[in-house]
User: What shape does this take?
Amino acid sequence: GRGEYSGEIPKSFIFSHMLHSFCRHGLFDLSIIANGDNNIHHTCENIAITLGAAFRKTLDTGADSMHRIYTEHVIQDDTLVRCVVDIAPIQSFSYVDLQLINECIDGLPRDVFPHFFRSFATEAKMNIHVSVLYGEDEHHKIEAAFKALGRAIHYASKYDVQRQSMNVGWEGKE
Assistant: This one.
């Protein structure tokens, strides 16, 4: 992709902004129109589930020839975030530590953001570990986490000629 994003998410400019950062840094193209009930938590969760399912479907076809695991660090002003992904684990798992202090960040309840990462990991059937190593600005913590996730998935899903030539599956070949 080219990192192009267009989205309409009612009541949440900030969540749309985070998805744009995810797409731009992961070089994923995404067009989304989200509608449903008035609960932004449900809307964000449904986006995570739908996006995770799309990634699972896309990545299932070539996981044996991809790098599979990648660690990405992203800095944004005062914040440093680490994201580690495994796009072809035996089972999905997520660890999310965004170090959010405020109850609301840019108008959204703070639990929406870690819940997005967990729901995405579960539906995509990935292992995702995302941690804020340090930082003070809540917006920067969240945005750097979305950027790091996009970049980590981008590089983990890159074609690896050596793995392709091995012609072996991942399961049981740790």
